[in-house]
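worker-3 :: picked YIP1 family protein
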Amino acid sequence: MSLLGNIGATYLHPRRVIRHLLAAGVREDRALVLAMGAGTMAFVAQWPRLVRQADASGEDLQMLLGGSLLGLVFILPLIMYVLAALTHLVARLFGGRGSAYASRIALFWAFAAAMPLMLLDGLVGGFIGSGPASSAVGILWCLAVLVFWMAGLIEAHFSPQSGSRHA
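worker-3 :: tokens ->
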């Protein structure tokens, strides 16, 4: 299935999509591209909000964009790798049978699949500004990431085929 098809399917059946991604085998290059691609989309999602912030405060837009680029495209994937390693260890403590790669895919995919909500959050922040609407969309985005991540971890570590499917 295509990337957009998988994102749409994740909102209905997150475990099925993770199962499909893990069945493709261990591909660390794919995991890195997924993490950096999601970071790039998060960077793009922040543009409207950053333009509004620069216009309202007089800050230099290029500096805001540069900081956002560094943080979301280069530093965030590193943080996600560390977070995935920690959750893998926690899952193993609770009897999880999945691999570290499966933990990475669960987190990276959760972040990527929730990207439509992050894009909406950026638009709301850019056009409406901070307030209840922006907070509601941000909370919805956070919940989507958590739900997709937990569903991915359950599928990766605690499903019947989790230990045999991937190394």
